Structure formats: structure tokens, C-alpha cells
């Protein structure tokens, strides 16, 4: 029952570890990496897992090396990073809004990024880089809009969710309008983008995402303790010495950036941000925002969903967003039913 | 001259003693709605100060200002001679604790974990759980009588137990000053007395300075060593309950005609409202007082 352990150094430093959480994190990481290896081996040219590993460590033959390192590894890395960003971003949003529905999917950040991408595709016929930048801008502008509209002496949970839903509706309408303006080629491109796909991702997508995660993840985790206090309400966390507004602002910006960047890289992969934190929490059975478990869960979920989509329908047939959408949608319904039974909504 | 005015000037003469926590000429407002103007309050060190007053008189607002939840639009709140807003957040949190009226116990949290969160201001990124933290948490739970509940989930507890757990959390903060916003609301009479006894114990045995907002004037008169009576954002009287609680004061502050007799148990003032017929119609506007939310 009691799984909290403190690790102390003679110098008076101490770290508090929840054993169960630690085990969950390690298992999820192993699962994500194992799924990645299998995923790299999957495709028109099947490679056994042992060969994949050998190639990754630089001992494969030339053809395997090309397929693994140039074609499939970047795609899987983008998948891992996108999943991790969405998982972490979702956990942040849900913790800040104190509401499992306060996830970027519901708040319309994905739609906002889509609007940015569609603008680039439809109005400017932009290339991949412009589309990515457009998605990033769209996500950021939407995030800023939600924040400004929901802000009144601090962002409050339900207001944030309700404003987000309104924002989402508006942006969805804009997206619909943009699609009707598109010619058939652009429209097809736009629709594929909108489903969320990892198809054809290369190293150019990996580096910026990796750099962003390298900055934001430590920053977010360092502020996680403050966020954990904020679960109990603003007043009490303020009384405990948490700079509530500052922590919230910082983490909201980080969450918007993570979500927007993930969306820019892979399209609006739906429901990972909603489900990952909830699943992680159920595994760790630990109160608190469960930031690291959510991150690992997001990565594992996305890579697994990508593998399922390739296995079930052949390589590149089904965008990963469809799989996460189906899985996540079922989960959302289940969540709504149980929350309703528990009398919370 | 009313009893209130007399004690007021009496206190002003003592101004040379510097107390740890005070508000100087503060104007308190939410957005444009002004609750109090040029309000000055001293919290005597080592006192159990209770703030009383009718609904919407600004007592919770004053408590929020004293605990730096609300920034005064004018004037300043001083803690140990420094403006409280300009002090580092964790330093304030190690000196002054606050138990707000409503807090959310996170889903699936145990009593020990919740009490442990009170250690936050003493911790850092690399000092997350010292042996001292462990000791203080055990001690706080023992003091509030929730030690045997340590591994229970907070959601499963009764209202009285839950309030004790929150007080334990505030105690774990180890602050010499502790502010409590209506700690007895929503509790039945037995648990109200239970919580107040606990407060008195913390004050007497540990020498902590306590400031509480209470609704029940008789509880206030029995437990407080220093009483502050507010009405419309103004201090009407302050001092020891025995010195200031009179029927005139109660009528002035609450608009209620009453008798003040000696509490047969403690000898402190006991307010007995006059019978309805004796009060006459419209004297106290009882419906209005009852309808207003605090």
C-alpha cells in the first residue's frame, strides 16, 4: 500500500520516489521502445527485430541500413516524440483545468493547428516547411486566444474547458470553409494532413521536435511539484508558497508549445493527449499530475497505434490518427459513462 | 461613548509594541467593489485572535489580505516589518500558514500524503523528503489525532476528520502564525468544539499565533484571547472578549438586541438574543442578515 520511498544522501539531499510510478514508467518505456523496434521492422520489406537492433547499433548490411536509418527510424522517432509531447501536454492541460476533459483535443488546439496548416496548403500552396510553421502558429494563436478569453483573475477549470469548446467550434468552421475553397489536389493533401499521419516523416521533422522536447520536458518536470500542489486549489497552494499564476502561465505555454509542435509534425493525432494521462494515472494509482508516466504512455500509445494501423491495413494505408481516434473515442465514451456513474458530470 | 470606541483608543496607545503581522491603512477591493477602506489591524503576537462580524463585513477579505491572497489596492500588510507582497513566496509560507475555507483533496490521496504536502515550503527540487519532513508529518498527525488514519483515503473520512486532516496539513507547514478561514463551517456542534479545542491547544501549548474567522459569536467569545469586531469594513471594537463584548456592541455590529451574560462554564461573555417580541418588528432585519452570503 505504502509505495513512497525517500532516497537520501549524506549531504541532506533527498528525492522522493513512488515505487509503483517508477515501475510503470520503466515498463512503459520498455513497451514504447519494443514497439518501436517492431514498427521499424514492419513494412513492405520486413526486417526481423534482431536485425533491426543490429542495424541500429551499426552492424547491419547496407540495404537494411538505408531502410532502417533513413526511412523508418525517423518516422518512429517522430512517432515517439509526438506521442510523448501529446501525453505530457495533455497531462498539463488536465492538471491545470482540474478536469479530465480539459485536454487539447477538446480545447481545440488541434483544430487551431489544423487551421494554420490548411491556410498554408489552401491559400498559399505552401510546402512541407510552411505547413509545419503554419500549424505551429495556428496552435499558438488558438492557445493564446483561449487563454485571453478564459483569463479572469486566473484561469479556472470549467471556464477554460467551455471557452476551449467554443473556440474549437469556431476554428472547425474556419477549417470547413478553407476546405471548400481548396482545389481537389490541395483538398486531398489537406484531408490526409488533418487525419494525422506519420507517413514520410524524415530527419527534418525529428530535430526541431527533439530540440523543443529537450528544452520543455525538463522545464515542465522541474515545475511539476508546484503543479501537484495546485491540485488542491489556488488558495492553499499559494499559502504553501507556490507562485500559482507564474507556474500556471509557464506550464500552459509549455503545454501549448508541445501540443502545437506535435500537431505540426504529425497532424492532429486525436485523443492521445486525452487518454494518455488518464491511462497513466490508472496504472500508477497515484494522485498528482503524473507527468512522466503520461509522457511515456503517450509515446507507447502512438507507436503502438501506428503499428496497428500498418499491420491491419498494410503499410501507409491508414493514417495513425484514425486508429488513435477509434481507440480514444471508445475510451472517451467509457470515461463519460463512468464519470456519470460516479456523479461527477 | 460606546464600549467599542473606548477599547479602540486603548489599543492605539499600545502601538509602540511591534507585532509580527499587521495591516496598515489597507483598502481592500475585488475589481471595483471596495470592501474596506483605510483599515488598520494589528494581530497581537501569541494571541488567539478571532475576527467576527456580520456577513459581508469583510472579515474573510481581511484574512485574505493578511495572508497575501489579496493585494491591497492601497496601504500595506506587514509581516516581520516587511511588506508581505515583496517577500519570497516560500519564506512567507514558512512563517504564515493559511487554511482556506474550501480546498480540494485530490482523488485517491491518503491522509499521510495530504499532510505531507504541507512540507512544500521547506522542500526543494533536491530536498524532497528529509527525515525532518517525515518527523513533522507524524507529529502533526499525532497532534490532530489523525495518526491512526494515516493510510486511509481522505475521500472516505467524515467532515470532522477531514477538517482535522487539513489542519494537520497546515501544522506540518510549521508556521508560527496560522490563519484559519471559518474552520468550523459545515461541522456539527461536537466537531465545531473539537476543532476549536484543537486551536486553543495549538495556541496555549505551542505558543502559535492563531487568527480565525468565526461565525458564532459565543464560540469567538469563549476561545479568543483577542477579538476583532468588524462591520462594513471598519473595526468597531477590538480587545479581550471580556472587555469588549457588551449588548451595545452586539447591537452596533450585528444589529441584534440581546443580553450578554456570563458563560456559566468559562465566565466569558455569552450572547443571548432578545426574544422576538421584545425586539419588536424590523429592529434587526433578521431576514436580510440571514439571506446574505458571506
Structural account:
Chain A: InterPro entries: ABC_BtuC-like (IPR037294), ABC_transptr_permease_BtuC (IPR000522). The complex is a heterodimer of chains A (345) and B (294). With 345 residues, chain A is an all-alpha fold. Chain A has helices at residues 19-41, 49-56, 62-97, 104-107, 109-124, 128-150, 157-181, 184-195, 203-222, 224-230, 234-239, 244-266, 272-284, 291-313, 320-341; strands at residues 4-8, 14-18. In chain A, strands 1-2 form a two-stranded antiparallel ribbon. In chain A, helix 14 packs across helix 15 (320-341). Chain A is globular and about 60 Å long. With 294 residues, chain B is of the alpha/beta class. Chain B has one domain (3-244): Rossmann fold. Chain B has helices at 3-12, 59-66, 89-95, 111-116, 131-143, 159-172, 189-206, 217-223, 241-244, 247-254, 276-279, 286-291; strands spanning 21-30, 33-43, 48-52, 74-79, 82-83, 96-99, 177-181, 209-213, 226-231, 234-239, 258-262, 269-273. In chain B, the strands form 3 sheets. Chain B has a 6-stranded mixed beta sheet with strand order 6-7-8-3-9-10, sandwiched between helices. Chain B has a 4-stranded antiparallel beta sheet with strand order 2-1-4-5, with helices on one face. In chain B, strands 11-12 form a two-stranded antiparallel ribbon. In chain B, a hairpin with a 2-residue loop joins strand 4 and strand 5. Mean pLDDT of chain B is 87; it is low at 1-16 and 286-294. Chains A and B meet through strand 1, strand 2, helix 10 and helix 11 of A and helix 3 and strand 6 of B.
Amino acid at each position: 500500500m505504502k509505495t513512497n520511498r525517500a532516497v537520501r544522501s549524506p549531504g541532506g539531499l533527498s528525492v522522493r520516489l513512488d515505487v509503483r510510478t517508477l515501475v510503470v514508467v520503466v515498463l512503459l518505456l520498455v513497451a514504447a521502445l519494443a514497439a518501436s523496434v517492431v514498427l521499424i521492422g514492419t513494412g513492405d520489406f520486413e526486417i526481423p527485430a534482431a536485425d533491426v537492433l543490429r542495424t541500429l547499433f551499426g552492424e547491419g548490411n547496407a540495404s537494411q541500413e538505408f531502410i532502417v536509418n533513413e526511412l523508418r527510424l525517423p518516422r518512429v522517432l517522430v512517432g515517439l516524440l509526438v506521442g510523448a509531447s501529446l501525453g505530457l501536454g495533455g497531462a498539463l492541460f488536465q492538471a491545470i483545468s482540474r478536469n479530465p476533459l480539459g485536454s487539447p483535443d477538446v480545447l481545440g488546439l488541434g483544430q487551431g493547428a489544423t487551421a494554420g496548416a490548411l491556410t498554408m496548403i489552401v491559400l498559399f500552396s505552401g510546402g512541407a516547411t510552411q505547413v509545419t510553421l503554419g500549424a505551429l502558429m495556428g496552435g499558438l494563436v488558438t492557445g493564446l486566444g483561449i487563454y485571453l478569453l478564459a483569463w479572469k483573475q486566473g484561469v479556472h477549470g470549467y471556464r477554460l474547458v467551455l471557452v476551449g469548446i467554443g473556440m474549437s467550434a469556431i476554428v472547425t468552421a474556419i477549417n470547413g470553409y478553407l476546405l471548400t475553397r481548396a482545389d481537389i489536389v490541395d483538398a486531398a493533401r489537406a484531408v490526409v494532413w488533418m487525419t494525422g499521419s506519420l507517413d514520410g516523416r524524415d530527419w527534418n521533422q525529428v530535430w526541431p521536435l527533439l530540440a523543443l522536447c529537450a528544452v520543455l520536458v525538463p522545464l515542465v518536470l522541474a515545475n511539476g511539484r508546484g503543479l501537484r500542489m495546485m491540485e488542491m486549489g489556488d488558495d492553499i497552494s499559494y499559502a504553501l508558497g507556490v507562485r500559482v499564476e507564474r507556474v500556471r502561465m509557464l506550464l500552459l505555454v509549455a503545454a501549448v508549445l508541445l501540443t502545437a509542435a506535435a500537431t505540426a509534425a504529425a497532424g492532429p493525432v486525436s485523443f492521445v493527449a486525452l487518454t494518455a494521462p488518464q491511462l497513466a494515472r490508472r496504472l500508477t494509482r497515484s494522485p498528482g499530475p503524473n507527468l512522466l508516466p503520461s509522457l511515456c504512455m503517450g509515446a507507447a500509445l502512438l507507436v503502438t497505434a501506428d503499428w496497428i494501423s500498418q499491420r491491419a491495413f498494410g503499410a501507409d494505408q491508414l493514417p495513425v490518427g484514425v486508429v488513435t481516434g477509434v481507440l480514444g473515442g471508445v475510451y472517451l465514451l467509457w470515461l463519460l459513462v463512468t464519470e456519470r456513474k460516479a456523479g461527477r458530470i | 461613548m460606546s464600549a467599542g470606541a473606548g477599547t479602540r483608543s486603548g489599543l492605539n496607545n499600545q502601538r509602540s509594541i511591534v507585532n509580527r503581522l499587521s495591516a496598515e491603512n489597507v483598502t481592500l477591493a475585488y475589481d471595483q467593489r471596495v470592501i474596506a477602506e483605510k483599515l488598520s489591524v494589528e494581530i497581537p503576537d501569541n494571541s488567539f485572535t478571532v475576527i467576527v462580524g456580520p456577513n459581508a463585513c469583510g472579515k474573510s477579505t481581511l484574512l485574505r489580505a493578511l495572508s497575501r491572497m489579496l493585494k491591497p489596492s492601497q496601504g500595506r500588510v506587514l509581516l516581520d516589518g516587511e511588506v508581505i507582497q515583496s517577500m519570497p513566496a516560500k519564506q512567507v509560507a514558512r512563517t504564515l500558514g493559511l487554511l482556506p475555507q474550501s480546498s480540494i483533496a485530490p482523488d485517491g490521496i491518503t491522509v499521510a500524503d495530504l499532510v505531507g504536502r504541507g512540507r512544500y515550503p521547506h522542500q526543494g527540487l533536491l530536498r524532497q523528503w528529509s527525515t525532518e519532513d517525515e518527523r513533522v508529518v507524524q507529529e502533526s498527525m499525532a497532534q490532530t489525532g489523525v495518526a491512526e488514519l494515516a493510510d486511509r483515503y481522505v475521500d472516505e473520512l467524515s467532515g470532522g476528520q477531514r477538517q482535522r486532516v487539513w489542519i494537520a496539513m497546515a501544522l506540518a507547514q510549521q508556521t508560527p502564525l496560522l490563519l484559519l478561514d471559518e474552520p468550523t463551517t459545515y461541522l456539527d456542534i461536537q466537531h465545531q468544539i473539537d476543532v476549536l479545542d484543537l486551536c486553543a491547544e495549538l495556541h496555549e501549548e505551542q505558543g502559535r499565533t492563531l487568527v480565525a474567522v468565526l461565525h458564532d459569536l459565543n464560540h469567538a467569545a469563549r476561545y479568543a484571547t483577542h477579538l476583532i469586531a468588524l462591520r462594513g469594513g471598519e473595526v468597531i471594537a477590538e480587545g479581550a472578549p471580556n472587555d469588549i463584548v457588551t449588548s451595545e456592541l452586539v447591537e452596533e455590529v450585528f444589529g441584534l438586541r440581546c443580553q450578554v451574560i456570563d458563560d456559566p462554564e468559562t465566565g466569558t461573555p455569552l450572547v443571548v438574543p432578545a426574544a422576538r417580541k421584545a425586539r419588536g418588528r424590523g429592529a434587526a432585519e433578521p431576514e436580510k442578515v440571514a439571506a446574505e452570503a458571506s
